[in-house]
Each structure stands twice: as C-alpha cells, then as structure tokens.
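Help needed: design a sequence for this.
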C-alpha cells in the first residue's frame, strides 16, 4: 500500500491539484490529510495506518501529482527505501531547486525517525535539509549546485512527476511567526550540516548557500 500524507491549508486548495490527487487515489493510494505545521507530525499520521512494507510519502498541498507516481514509487522503493523529488513549473517545465516530495517505506521511517528534522513545512530550509539527509544515507558526495539543480539516483526521482502553478511563496512572508519558523528550520539544518556535512557551507542567518 501507498499512503499520501499532506497538510491541508484551505487557502492553497485548488481544484486542479485535488483532481490530480483523485487520479492516484483511484489507483489505490490512500489519502492521509491532516492540518499540522511540522513534517514529522504529518508523516506520523501516515505511519499510524501503514505496515512495514508500505510506502508513506509527503507532498506539499499545492502540488499536482502525475498519475505515473504510484508506479514510479513502487518500483523505486522496491530497491531503494527512501527518496525525494522536486517539482517542475506548470507553465515553463523548469525544475525548482527545492523538494516537494519525500517518500520511504514505513520500515525506513521507523528506523530513521530520530533523524527526521523537527521542522516546519511551508518554511525555509526544511526540504533541502531532508534532501541532504537522504543523499547522505546513500553516501552520495555532492556540491551545492548539484543539490539545487541535479537529480541524483537513487536519492531523487526524475523530475516531471510533480507540477506546480506559481503563486506567492508563503515562506517569504515577513510575519513574526513565519520569521521564527524560518529561523528554526535554518538552525536545525545548520546544526545537522556541521555534524554530518561540514563542507556544505551556508549562512545560517540569511540561508544563502555558498557555492
């Protein structure tokens, strides 16, 4: 079984997005929709329903999902237990630097649960943090440009399975709550990088990755 976890925010709900989700649900993917601010809370909701061999994946709530994703995830996770994927722009087809999908078997999630960052979704840095964690799991050596622009097997699925219509990025909003969430995520990533990947140099205050 495959479980799709996401945190639903009504302000970002779009008919086209949910129609694409319905297509994968008719293939047997099980929806697990909650309203939560942190990645581990959303993933945990899926894990509560899944068995060890099942796949639990997360996407942002504004992502159009290809009907080919369930087959791609099943094939990938049969050999490699965890992966991420980036979206492409709906109009231009250009890939984004961040990640909008994390997927793993329940067994992998449980075994590596303490490594899952206690990060706020919809805010800076959490996605690149987890993307680095996945690459480190596969002992992949990489540069900052490859993190931002390149899909490396088996850490990432090929681009094109996720699409996104451009809108104002909520993580750029300068409200005090959003600033605090961004700072929280940056600091988590910075501390992890210092211990596990010191060559990944970035400014923790501005989150400018140094190429």
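Sure. Designed sequence:
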């Amino acid at each position: 079984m495959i479980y799709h976890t996401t945190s639903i925010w009504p302000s970002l709900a779009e008919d086209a997005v949910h129609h694409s989700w319905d297509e994968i649900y008719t293939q047997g993917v099980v929806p697990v929709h909650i309203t939560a601010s942190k990645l581990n809370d959303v993933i945990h909701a899926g894990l509560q329903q899944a068995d060890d061999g099942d796949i639990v994946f997360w996407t942002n709530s504004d992502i159009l999902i290809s009907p080919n994703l369930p087959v791609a995830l099943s094939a990938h996770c049969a050999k490699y237990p965890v992966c991420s994927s980036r979206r492409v722009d709906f109009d231009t087809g250009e890939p984004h630097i961040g990640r909008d999908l994390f997927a793993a078997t329940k067994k992998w999630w449980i075994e590596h649960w303490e490594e899952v960052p206690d990060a706020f979704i919809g805010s800076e840095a959490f996605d690149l943090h987890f993307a680095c964690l996945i690459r480190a799991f596969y002992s992949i050596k990489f540069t900052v440009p490859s993190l931002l622009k390149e899909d490396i097997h088996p850490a990432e699925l090929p681009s094109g399975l996720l699409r996104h219509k451009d809108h104002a990025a909520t993580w750029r909003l300068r409200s005090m709550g959003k600033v605090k969430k961004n700072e929280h995520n940056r600091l988590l990533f910075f501390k992890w990088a210092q211990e596990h990947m010191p060559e990944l140099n970035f400014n923790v205050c501005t989150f400018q990755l140094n190429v």
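The mean pLDDT is 88.
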